[in-house]
Amino acid sequence: MLPEIRQALRSLARAPNFTAVAILTLALGIGAVTTALSWVQGLVLNPAPLVREPERLLELSLRPKWGGGNGRTSYPDYLDVRARVRALDGVAAFSMQPLGLAERAGAAADPVSGVYASENYFRVLGIRPALGRFFVPADSADSGAEPPAVIGHALWRRRWGSDPSVLGRRVLVNGEPVTVVGVAPERFGGTSAGLGAEVWVPLAALERLGSTPGLLEARGAWWLESFGRVRAGSTAGEAQAEVSALGERVTARYPEHREVGLQAIPFRGGASQDVIRPMMAVLLAGAVVVMLLVCANVANLFLVRNAARERELGVRAALGARRGRLAGQLLAECALLAAAAAAL
User: Fold this and answer.
1) pTM (2 decimals)?
2) Torsional sign, CA 247, 251, 253, 255
3) Cβ neighbours for 79, distance < 8 A, ≥ 6 positions apart
4) Contact between residue 216 and residue 81 where contact means Cβ atoms under 8 Å apart
5) Which ranges in the chain belong to alpha helices (H)?
6) Cα separation of 220 and 99, whole Å?
């Protein structure tokens, strides 16, 4: 193909306007599809990077009698699953809520994406801190001491310039003092796809930091997202069967569960996927349509240009060029344009 490539370069150089328009048009379509696929990869296919063996995680969710689910449970439901489902090696829970972060009393609080998380949240995910530590079992109870807090890597870099001395620093979250004990690793923004978390605090500090009172006791308040890791030696099917059986017992015992049960589904990146997946499908479909239009336009450009090259191609054929050789030259031109557009 080297002779064809050299000839294609000379041919494209003699038509700079055609070459520029074709490259720019193809670059637009390739850019649209690449962007859409990148978002699908980050938000749908791999919503929680750095998580250890995500295929062994199961999300807990309500199972209404009419089908579907909302991806959330109550705190008492979470405790029941954690205590009684033996096929799961650790069950964690979290809830994303906006928080106000200030470095000292009297300073204006900046809004941040916050997460109330169980003390085993990071352990179940298999995440290691970039600095300091994560929560420990003692953080599961409100002992009266200042709650610990873990900050996101991007927030640490943006607000504290990646200063290691941030560990042990007292900051205010919703006006209440907390102590920074760790920094999450880079690229980890929590387990809710598309909703990057910046600050994690223990679930035990929920009411102290100003959330609605009584959430930790209300079985009919379905606000918590939960997930568990399948125990070594068990299967996802066994864990799902145990969760379903537990859900039937809970439904029979508590009036709040009269119309709903519990289920465990493969980990998908939180309840936010119910909104994100349809959006990503529309985005990807739109990008594919754009790419098809781009290909049609460039094909028309080639047809017009080749019609004007009939004489040139006829002379080449008369001089002994076979159809395969002529097709190879045109293919080389297409490949060069596509490569330049992809690079752009």
Assistant:
1) 0.73
2) positive
3) none
4) no
5) 2-13, 16-40, 75-84, 121-125, 153-160, 236-253, 273-308, 310-318, 323-343
6) 24
Contact 176, 148 (CB under 8 A): no
Tens digits of residue pLDDT in 290-304: 999 999 999 998 888
Tens-place pLDDT, residues 10-63: 888 888 898 999 999 999 999 999 988 888 877 777 767 788 888 899 988 887
Residues paired with residue 148 on neighbouring β-strands, in sequence order: 179
- CA dihedral in degrees (7, 8, 13, 18; nearest 10)? 150
- Secondary structure string (H, E, C) spanning 313-339: HHHHHHCCCCHHHHHHHHHHHHHHHHH
107: left (phi over 0), alpha (psi -120 to 50) or beta: beta
Return the structure tokens found at 264.
């465990």
Q: Environment class of residue 247 by beta-carbon count within 10 Å: exposed (0-12), middle (13-18) or buried (19+)?
A: buried
Contact 95, 221 (CB under 8 A): no
φ, ψ at 116 (rounded to 5°): -85, 120
- Taking the C-alpha atoms of residue 294 and residue 24, their distance in angstroms, rounded to an integer, is 10
- Among residues 204, 228, 241, which one has the least CA distance to residue 90? 228
For residue 181, the SS3 value is: strand
Strands 170-173 and 57-64: unpaired
